[in-house]
Amino acid sequence: MRQYIYKTIIAVVALIIVFEFTIGKTINKFNQKAEIIFTKEGRKNMVNSVKIEMQKAIDKENYLTEDERVLINRFISKIRNELKSVK
């Protein structure tokens, strides 16, 4: 009977350790990211980082490469043509 209890305790401790090092870390990472989104301070930090990135984009002379400009221009032209055909 004692051996059964010892084996059970060892198995439970091993399962807890394996859980913490595998699934537990993933859950903790997700919780940290969720806290950033759902807290007031986290949202303020996100807004500030978006503002900084927008300012960097404004300060650049050319934000898009030539290939990107051509691609976006063709896409917008196609959308305009499709919208013109609607009655």
Blueprint (SSEs and pairs):
Blueprint: H1 2-38, H2 40-59, H3 66-84
Helix pairs in contact: 1-2
Verbal overview:
The chain has 87 residues and is mostly helical. It has one domain. 87% of the residues lie in helices and 0% in strands. The chain is built from three helices and no strands. It has helices at 2-38, 40-59, 66-84. The mean pLDDT is 89.
Brief overview, please?
This protein is mostly helical and 87 residues long.
Structural class, by secondary structure, is mainly alpha
Number of domains: 1
H-E string: HHH
State the shape: elongated
Number of helices: 3
CA-atom Rg in angstroms? 27 Å
- DSSP strand content: under 5%
Biggest sheet descriptor: none
Please, what is the average pLDDT? 89
Helix fraction bin:
over 70%
How far apart lie the N and C ends? Answer: 83 Å
Which consecutive residue ranges, at least 5 long each, have pLDDT under 50?
A: none
Count of distinct strands:
0
What are the key terms here?
87 residues; mainly alpha; 3 helices
